[in-house]
# Entry
Amino acid sequence: MDRSRDLKYYAGGQKLKKLFEHSSIKDMQLKNRFFRAAVWEKLATEDGHLTSELSRQYEELAKGNVGTIITGYAYITKDEQPNPCMMGIYSDDFISEYKILTDTVHRYGANIIMQIVYGGSMTQLNPPSENILGPSAVKNELTGITPIAMTKKDISYIVKAFANAARRSKEAGFDGVELHAAHGYLLSQFLSPHYNQRADEYGGSLENRARILLEVVQAVRAEVGERFPIIAKLNSEDFMEDGITQRESIVVAKLMEQNGLDAVDVSGGNPSDPNVIKNNLTPSRSKIILKKQQSYFKEYAQKLATEISIPVILTGGNRSYDVMENILNTTNIAYFGLARLLISEPNLIGIWTAGDLKTPKCVSCNRCHSTSGSRCILA
# Structure
């Protein structure tokens, strides 16, 4: 059964929105409302190049009818790698190999978006890169790393690195880019009063703390043109005593929209704070089988979607088809990001497309995070 032909209606006659229907973000055509949320697959080479196993994972997702794939994060400067065996996009040398990947994904009618990042003191590389930049020289409680406080020259360097990474992504055939501004990585740190203790125009007020994000969006737009989608992954809040709040996050999203952003991918939690991990407030929360525990950033995303006119992608704890369908039809949330479900079953969207709205195998145990290649222990 093709769910896209199901002619249900609201009480009152309003046509029901469907998870399997076409839409668009700028020039990117989406065949359904499902995104594969970014996952660090740990399958690239040590210097960030593709491997056959990593390419095969993306092909499996495309074959499984995922509408839009967001890659694992790719690092944008050769001298700073946040994690081992993650993808890179710091050189034009990557363009030709990624073009093979994007052509493969497109053959199945799927989109693929490159997520780009500067890690900063959240790095898990061992030993870490020699020169790690941050908004201020504040020690990261999770990694123990104190970054080098960025000069304005450093800020310009990073802004340009994001722009160049986006240009390479477009030239390689990706359908858009996602700026990683969540989870305690560099752009997220600039938003956080805990990590950003600057006294210049990049610190202090929220508008100043958001300045680098706006400059990144502007620089990326100048490189990729008006029709290429730019998405930002943004924390709903850090869940830290002195982190970014929900109210502030909405203001940041509005500012980014005004500066050319095309969609917001909602997440939350800064795992550099031990209490975030202790209290199960990370981006990948465990033990969320019950429906009332699922889609745990929904309330923020629902409010955000009434405050901005660009699409909101809800990521985090989306598990049940009927829960997502209800959210779609009772809020302005437009899309849904899935990660762990598709680690366990890369063909799950295809199964749902055929009308079998099965319960996913994934039990949110998070054991995939500690396996080689981020694989499901139940698969």
User: Anything to note?
Assistant: The chain has one domain: 3-370. The longest helix spans residues 152-171. Residues 1-9 have pLDDT under 50 and may be disordered. The radius of gyration is 19 Å.
